[in-house]
Design a protein that fits this description.
The structure is a homodimer of 399-residue chains.
Chain A: E1 18-28, E2 45-49, H1 54-57, H2 60-67, E3 72-76, H3 85-97, E4 102-107, H4 109-121, H5 129-133, E5 145-149, E6 161-166, E7 171-176, E8 184-187, H6 197-215, H7 223-245, H8 250-263, H9 277-289, H10 293-307, H11 313-322, H12 331-348, H13 365-374, H14 388-397
Parallel strand pairs in A: 1-8, 2-3, 2-4, 4-5, 5-8
Antiparallel strand pairs in A: 6-7
Helix pairs in contact in A: 3-4, 6-7, 6-8, 6-10, 7-8, 9-10, 10-12, 10-14, 11-12, 13-14
């Protein structure tokens, strides 16, 4: 297979072919929520979906409702972090009972992901769980939807992917479909001022790892994608800690928000190999132990880069130089330093990076590996070389 | 007005609000032309528009025709560089006579720009020249269109703008409309192998200046946009000269192509002030003296950066450091060096950078200024500070 070649060799590879399309209309800036009515057909029956009470408490929900005077409005609340199939199916029922024809997600990645599932499931023929089992392939249509983003992190506001958890099965699964691109997304940086700092920490780490999953593989001479990815990493390094220190600095929040959206809207991943092993192993940690998504990424990524360094050698050197400014010394030293600095950045963002920090010990590893196997995650990474044995090493190094 | 402040002050400005949407589907890679039928409604009457005979000679036209077996096809050839209103109106007539319902542009920026005009003019009520006079504001619909790009340069394949020249009036005018986004664009780097090197020179300089028009203004703390712009400039500096030396290196042409598209698809310009004075002055040079578009940009930009350096001080320093690696010495010295290196790069790309190189002397300046005035170009640039007096200085410095 073309992807296998001597690991440390710098492959004079060709940029991979790709199709890229992203039709989401981004409405970026202060007060943009007041303009959403320009983007929803008049007379629509609109269901507003959200999570806990924070969007009600901070006025965002009222602003959305005010912007939609003249529409017939419905509400569905209680979409949880790592949105569950069980909860979302209640929303699907409401959509069908009330003949809803537009969905408005108000919240962060979980609410938006959940709304994408509702959009597809409401028009799906057959058992909606199969949407997750075939990763979206069977989706032929979806209700139109828009979003008001309150938490910069996942990029879901401008992409075609979503993650849904089925608690009964301890399964956290991903699906993709062009039918669930939001038609518009409001990105108002001021909406993030009132977020708990823990969510900013999670958001920065999540966005950083999204970029790394698409960047830190092997080189195919995709210069634009590499420069863009490095630009996002540098921006997150610059604004992340400052956004914790100064929560009402507009520019910091604006740059954080735009970085997170650009980090996972398909652009930097077009034409390059992608990894995603950190995410897949991390999903099992969340499903089994309830860790925040970003916590799992902060734990797994440094170990994965260490275990898989031979496969990622050339790109690790590029990362060390362009993102961390490391030029001198031997190659091993630079790579080790870049991985250590990555871990240090996560810790600086106040996210612990070892399983033991969360009370998870060696005895949990067999169960996690079993779940990876159950979900078919037996050949992960850009070379499909992260077998269960490699995942075991990564988890052991993460203790 | 908020844009005016003490020139050398580094404004702690806020990122500007913006809406960003770009629905064009990019089909990137070898042989993608064979897939265009997947993106045009079955049974369509398709008009293929192109320029001279090169797309016929090199087989691209035949590939497009082969991909569209089963459609009713028409052809319109002869769209010239700097496409003329006079020529395009003949295509409009053909579209109306033959009830065409899809336009396929096969060529470079001129063919694509011209096709955008035809798409809008064919459905326009009233005199189509008014599309240019109000810069596209009156466009309410357009025929759907797609493109097969053969020349990386203008970015027209993934944006909503076009430039049309009316020879009888010596007028070269721009219009924009969301209705003329191509539905798809094929970017196959191998299609550029047979281009005359002069067109690669022009394309690289055109793309470079597009990025500069959106980047080299004043800082508003738009970190992502700045990093992306710098990434494109660095890529063009790296691949431009090598693409002249080695015309059949796939990776060089792929990176050049993607840089040019990304340079003017709305992304790096979202939320930042923009200049475009170089383009507006350059358009008058083309209209009056027939210079290639890129030649006019290579002449005007270095002079404009010199004349307007006080207004652009902070960004010129950033450009000097991040793109050219200039850190030591006084600020004036770094800025002067960065502008000199920019000029040197254009010359290295084999584009002359003085009016005298093209036989244009001081006596031409009054006429050029008169045309700028006629076209309302009396307060250009990101601060509207490029008055006719400033344009005069820029032209004099370009002799």
């Amino acid at each position: 297979m073309a992807f296998f070649f001597k690991s440390r060799e710098i492959r004079k590879g060709k940029m991979l072919d790709f199709n890229f399309r992203n039709p989401t209309n981004i409405l970026f800036g202060r007060g943009k929520i007041a303009t959403i009515n320009e983007h929803i057909s008049p007379g629509s029956r609109v269901l507003i979906l959200y999570g806990g009470g924070s969007v009600r408490a901070n006025g965002t929900l009222a602003q959305a409702t005010a912007a939609l005077a003249g529409y017939t409005l419905f509400e569905f609340s209680g979409i949880e972090p790592n949105p569950s199939y069980e909860t979302l199916m209640k929303a699907v029922e409401l959509v069908q009972d009330e003949s809803i024809d537009f969905l408005l997600a108000v919240g962060g990645g979980s609410v938006i992901d959940g709304t994408k599932f509702v959009a597809a499931a409401a028009l799906f023929e057959g058992e909606p769980w199969s949407i997750l089992l075939d990763r979206g392939a069977s989706i032929e249509r979806a209700l139109p939807m828009g979003t008001v983003l309150t938490l910069p992190a996942t990029g879901s506001e401008m992409n075609r992917g979503a993650v849904v958890t089925r608690r009964a099965l301890q399964a956290k699964l991903v699906f993709h479909s062009s039918h669930v691109f939001p038609q518009f997304s409001v990105l108002d940086p001021e909406k993030t001022y009132s977020l708990p700092l823990k969510q900013i920490s999670n958001g920065v780490v999540d966005a950083y790892v999204h970029v790394m999953e698409q960047y830190l593989t092997y080189p195919v001479n995709a210069m634009v994608q590499d420069r863009f990815a490095e630009g996002l990493l540098l921006t997150l390094l610059e604004v992340g800690p400052r956004a914790l220190a100064d929560p009402e600095d507009y520019d910091l929040r604006a740059n954080l928000m735009w970085s997170a959206t650009m980090g996972l809207n398909g652009l930097i991943g077009a034409g390059v190999p992608q990894d995603w092993a950190t995410h897949m192993i991390g999903h099992e940690l969340t499903a089994a132990h309830g860790l925040d998504h970003a916590q799992t990424l902060a734990i797994i990524l440094p170990s994965l880069l260490t275990v898989c360094q031979e496969d990622k050698w050339a790109k690790l050197l590029q990362y060390a130089e362009r993102v961390w400014g490391l030029k001198g010394g031997g190659e091993e030293t630079r790579i080790e330093a870049a991985i250590a600095l990555t871990r240090k950045f996560f810790e600086q963002m106040r996210i612990k990076t070892h399983l033991s920090d969360y009370g998870i010990g060696e005895e949990s590893i067999p169960r996690l590996l079993q779940q990876l196997e159950t979900h078919g995650m037996v050949a992960l990474g850009e070379r499909q070389s992260v077998t269960l044995d490699v995942s075991k090493k990564i988890l052991e190094m993460s203790l």
